[in-house]
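In this supplementary section we document a worked example of the pipeline. Step one takes a protein sequence of length 218 as its only input; no multiple sequence alignment statistics are reported here. Step two produces a three-dimensional model, which step three serialises into structure tokens for compact storage. The input and output of this example are shown verbatim.
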Amino acid sequence: LKTGAVIWKKQSFHLSFSTPMLINVDGQDQLAMAFANDVVGVDPNSGELLWRHPHPCKKFSITPPVWGADNILFISSAYECGSRALQLRQSDGKTTVKELWASSRMRVHHGTIIRLGDLVIGSSGTSGPAPLTAVNVKTGEVVWQDRAFPKANLVYADGKLILLDEDGQLALIHLSMQGMKVIAKAAVLESIAWTPPTLVGTNLYVRDRRTIVALDLR
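The serialised model returned by step three reads:
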């Protein structure tokens, strides 16, 4: 970071837009990445490949993986790909990968995914309807779906879900195992809002292709 010198440059996988995630597997830091055909873990210090698991998508993986304290890595992609949950374990520098399930019932295109307890929640769909979908991360069971909003990005704070859909509608939502309840909503943007909201304290920053807006949520 101080000099710009390349520390390592290794591995080669089919292009993906998914953001790498730093996770800790039983005491070992790993960089988890979802590519177009694989999910991989590498050593962030050396670039050494620690593990690799198939995740065939034909096109792209865009949404970052979601990591849980129970060592479950959840990956969801749109198009023909779907979702899968991987159980990671590490011992003596070796990582084992066990696929718990794979399903096409949830296909998150480019929105954020949040995990609450055993639920992973995201906006499922490539084009057309994209219902908010809650899936049991351990079994792959679809717990509930709700079509109240089009494709959306999510932030979770203060026990509530902040949702910004692609039409520019902002909503505050209460989530449970039974479904979702909209507390409040308002139109705040107009021109295709695909950027995830950013919450800093009580200030929420949202943008579409034309405008950036700062909102005070107090």
